[in-house]
Amino acid sequence: MNINYKVLTIIPIILALLSLTLVSVNGLKESIDVSGGTEISILAPANTDLSVLKEQLPDSEVKISESSIGTFVVIKSGLETDVDSVRAVVKEFFNVEDLSELSYTEKQIGSVLSSKFWEEGMKAVGFAFIFMAIVVYAIFRTPVPSGAVILAAASDMAIAVGGMSLFNIPISTATIAALLMLVGYSVDTDIMLTTRVLKRRSGTLDERIAGAMKTGITMSLTTIFAMAVLYLVVTFVVPAADVLANIAAVLLIGLIGDLMLTWMTNAGILKYYMSEYKKGK
């Protein structure tokens, strides 16, 4: 910690602000869970050429997804798209009179239900932060260390959302759940660090931070490795389960951000608080 820790403290905060700027400029891709629309899945021959289907459905997202039981064509259309016209194109493409002749499933989410999902998801995130802040302050009862934990959690979520915008990961009920999980992971390492720094008396300040860092980084790397394995397995073995891939990707981005925010930002604030702020009182 002999490096200019104040500079290191600011770097992850700047990254979080840049992430928010990216989201404001680039936006977030929305799944039909939160925007409404129709998702059609069709079990198709393995050699299906999607190029023609994509040309015929320019307003829909068309992709192919391999699974253990075959090849699925997945078509996602927004609320503004005429579903009947999509069905007609599908029947013509697969040369059938009725969609019941295909291994076919259809999921529709209306505007009222999708807006309800979005509203409830945002409420869940807001309540999670409020209750997390209350618990953190109740544990430490000092504004600076408590504020550092809350700042790290908020910045961690900002970096994760920025990563979603950058890598085109859709916001959905599943990825909102991943963001809530991320709050728990972030607060876990930050509380462990803050507890060791404030409440332990053995060793110097730098030794206590280094000891917490050894434990915390081991915990984080274990989870990062697990999420990386999950992402790779889903992507290359069961790509039909893309929801799991999105959850793993959000957690990976957030956990990597958490490494910086805990061991650069939070650790730097605590070092300043213990070595300069308290002594100046």
UniProtKB/TrEMBL annotation:
Keywords on record: Cell membrane, Membrane, Protein transport, Translocation, Transmembrane, Transmembrane helix, Transport
Stretches assigned to coiled coil: none
One matching Pfam family: SecD_SecF_C
GO terms, biological process: intracellular protein transmembrane transport; protein targeting
Transmembrane intervals: 7-25, 121-140, 175-198, 219-241, 247-273
Domain Protein export membrane protein SecD/SecF C-terminal: 95-274
Localisation per UniProt entry: Cell membrane
Entry annotated with the keyword Ribosomal protein: no
A cellular component annotation (GO) from this entry: plasma membrane
UniProt xrefs under InterPro entries: SecD/SecF_arch_bac (IPR022813), SecD_SecF_C (IPR048634), SecF_arc (IPR024921)
Membrane topology designation: Multi-pass membrane protein
Free-text function comment from the UniProt entry: Involved in protein export.
Complex and partners: Part of the protein translocation apparatus. Forms a complex with SecD.
Alphabetical list of HAMAP family matching this protein: SecF_A
UniProt similarity note: Belongs to the SecD/SecF family. SecF subfamily.
Protein name per Swiss-Prot or TrEMBL: Protein-export membrane protein SecF
Species in which this protein is naturally found: Methanococcus maripaludis
Encoding gene per record: secF
